[in-house]
Amino acid sequence: MDRQMFLQLVLATSQAAGVPEVKTWETVLDHWWRQVCSYGALSMLVHYYMLTLLWQFDHMSEPRYRKLVALGMASLVSTGRPEVLDRLPTEIFNLWTDVFFEVKESRKLAENEENE
Question: DSSP string covering 41-92, please?
């Protein structure tokens, strides 16, 4: 909900862990997509802030969670972080495309039900 807070949490986590911020971002983003399990400050940060986003996107059965992930990623893209923008043409566009098709399908179903 608050991308500035998330940016501050990532920075604080990288400082506390003594790792470069770029590495922390890569780990967060990898965790998001590949469900990399680690137990440390970074894992606690991700679990605390984005609990519903930890499931692998392709295995989410609830459309509302998939939409939530897409909205969260849009918020991260708006930060302009290079680590996020590097994934824009691949993982992020694929994620958004999947969600857009689901929205389109649900609209068609709703229109068909209204017309019947």
Answer: HHHHHHHHH-GGG-S-GGG---HHHHHHHHHHHHHHHTTT-HHHHTTIIIII
For the chain, what's the residue count?
116
Cα gap 21→5, rounded to integer Å: 15
Do residues 37 and 43 touch, judged by C-beta distance below 8 A? yes
pLDDT of residue 14: 93
Which residues contact residue 50 at a Cβ distance below 8 angstroms, ignoring those fewer than 6 apart?
Answer: 32, 72
> What pLDDT band is residue 48 in, cutting at 50, 70 and 90?
very low
Average pLDDT over residues 42-67: 55
The total domain count for the chain is 1
Lookup result for tokens 């400050």? 41
The whole domain housing 110 covers: 3-115
